Automatic annotation (TrEMBL):
<keyword id="KW-0106">Calcium</keyword>
<dbReference type="Pfam" id="PF13833">
    <property type="entry name" value="EF-hand_8"/>
</dbReference>
<keyword id="KW-0809">Transit peptide</keyword>
<keyword id="KW-0479">Metal-binding</keyword>
<feature type="domain" description="EF-hand">
    <location>
        <begin position="185"/>
        <end position="220"/>
    </location>
</feature>
<keyword id="KW-0109">Calcium transport</keyword>
<dbReference type="GO" id="GO:0036444">
    <property type="term" value="P:calcium import into the mitochondrion"/>
</dbReference>
<feature type="region of interest" description="Disordered">
    <location>
        <begin position="112"/>
        <end position="132"/>
    </location>
</feature>
<dbReference type="InterPro" id="IPR002048">
    <property type="entry name" value="EF_hand_dom"/>
</dbReference>
<keyword id="KW-0732">Signal</keyword>
<comment type="similarity">
    <text>Belongs to the MICU1 family. MICU1 subfamily.</text>
</comment>
<keyword id="KW-0813">Transport</keyword>
<keyword id="KW-0472">Membrane</keyword>
<feature type="compositionally biased region" description="Basic and acidic residues">
    <location>
        <begin position="118"/>
        <end position="132"/>
    </location>
</feature>
<protein>
    <recommendedName>
        <fullName>Calcium uptake protein 1, mitochondrial</fullName>
    </recommendedName>
</protein>
<keyword id="KW-0999">Mitochondrion inner membrane</keyword>
<dbReference type="InterPro" id="IPR018247">
    <property type="entry name" value="EF_Hand_1_Ca_BS"/>
</dbReference>
Length: 442
């Protein structure tokens, strides 16, 4: 019996691993349309009766994070259906709350009885019954609108950048393309694009000019290059931004100007909110995640072969069996450091050429100089436990920078190619895996 139970557990683990690998391939190689349809979980029926597929902020983060399994029974074109038109609940409301609504409308029991007994007399009074019916119906509709409005608030906090997208945090396909573009594009690229369309040099662009900036930037990203409108699935890239974002950037009359400073602040807030969702998904205890969880966040997009990845994680577990964990502030400081990874790479190269070793003190000095943040000793300990391969207290500069650049881009810079390029990448990965099998001790 124990043997059978063990076999079932093994089969379940194998199935879980196979599904995760399949989902990782979708993230890495599929078109934006398929990625969106696979990881989105909601289909909304709006007031005109039309349907549209949306992601929640959690769906969005899961769609760009390797090894995060999609919820059971929700996959390609499988959604939870929610109504925002109130029809699904109207009859239930009509039966259960009519008495409560009538009571609130100050129609007494005596008046209702009189209405039943003297129906003809009541009808003779001009408009009285009709007016009361309209009043009751109006109150029911007000209650419905309030109820529907409350349900819409469940998807994102009002302080979150996702809330500015409209529908209280739900992400449409066009929003999905826009957000992945913002996440995968370095700050410097946006600065250059803004200057291209800033004709008078005042550092501002209007809505039409920003749409051109957005179009150019998107065409340079892997998501933008691989996207093809698919009317059959409803995933077509609409021109411009959603109405909530245009209001956010250009004001209610859409005549405002967007500065590069304000847009980069939007990018910073988006990166903060996505990182916060990643942090919270690890179920922090007393506001802290474990060192191994932090290591997993760093290696999530690394592309490191599975054998080596396992070895690095074991090394981390060995160093921090009873670690104190890391706060969100410590994690955010390190990722702020990563945003400047190209400048960090240059600074570390100078140290290397000067013959100086790359130790923890050097890393903290580079963080202060380049990114204007303080890296705690504990964060540095975790990073060195991952990347100090020979245990001499010095970092492998080349590998560290390479993996951190991939982490910063969240894998979004990879071309979504389903043809020859993918075949060659698969063959190269297989060769690397085989090499690691020979290299690692049995």
């Amino acid at each position: 019996m124990v043997h059978i139970h063990f076999q079932i557990i093994c089969l379940f683990a194998i199935f879980h691993h196979v599904v995760m690998e399949y989902e990782n391939r979708i993230r890495a190689y599929s078109t934006p349309d398929k990625i969106f349809r696979y990881f989105a979980t909601l289909k909304i029926i709006n007031e005109p009766g039309e349907t549209e597929v949306f992601m929640t902020p959690q769906d969005f983060v899961r769609s760009i994070t390797p090894n995060e399994k999609q919820p059971e029974h929700l996959g390609l074109d499988q959604y939870i259906i929610k109504r925002f038109d109130g029809k699904a609940k109207f009859f239930k409301v009509k039966k259960k709350t009519l008495h409560r609504v009538r009571k609130k409308s100050k129609v007494s029991v005596l008046q209702r009885r009189r209405k039943k007994v003297h129906q003809e007399e009541e009808r003779a009074r001009p408009g009285s019954t009709e007016d009361k019916g309209k009043e009751i119906k109006r109150k029911i509709m007000e209650w419905l609108e309030k109820k529907i409005s409350q349900e819409r608030e469940k998807f994102a906090d009002e302080g979150s950048i996702f809330y500015t997208l409209g529908e209280c945090g739900l992400i449409s396909f066009s929003d999905y393309i826009f957000l992945t573009t913002v996440l995968s594009t370095p700050q410097r690229n946006f600065e250059i694009a803004f200057k291209m369309f800033d004709l008078n040099g005042d550092g501002e662009v209007d809505m039409e000019e920003f749409e051109q900036v957005q179009s150019i930037i998107r065409s340079q990203t892997s998501m933008g290059m691989r996207h093809r409108d698919r009317p059959t699935t409803g995933n077509t890239l609409k021109s411009g931004l959603c109405s909530a974002l245009t209001t956010y950037f250009f004001g209610a009359d859409l005549k405002g100007k967007l500065t590069i400073k304000n847009f980069l602040e939007f990018q910073r807030k988006l990166q903060h909110d996505v990182l916060k969702l990643e942090f919270e998904r690890h179920d922090p205890v007393d506001g802290r995640i474990t060192e191994r969880q932090f290591g997993g966040m760093l290696l999530a997009y690394s592309g490191v072969q599975s054998k080596k990845l396992t070895a690095m994680q074991k090394q981390l577990k060995k160093h921090f069996r009873d670690g104190k964990g890391l706060t969100f502030q410590e994690v955010e400081n390190f990722f702020t450091f990563l945003k400047n990874i190209n400048d960090v790479d240059t600074a570390l190269s100078f140290y290397h050429m000067a013959g100086a070793s790359l130790d923890k003190v050097t890393m903290q000095q580079v963080a202060r100089t380049v990114a204007k943040v303080e890296l705690s000793d504990h964060v540095c300990d975790v990073v060195f436990a991952l990347f100090d391969c020979d245990g001499n207290g010095e970092l492998s500069n080349k590998e560290f920078v390479s993996i951190m650049k991939q982490r910063l881009m969240r894998g979004l810079e990879k071309p979504k190619d389903m043809g020859f390029t993918r075949l060659m990448q698969a063959m190269w990965k297989c060769a690397q895996e085989t090499a690691w099998d020979f290299a690692l001790p049995k």
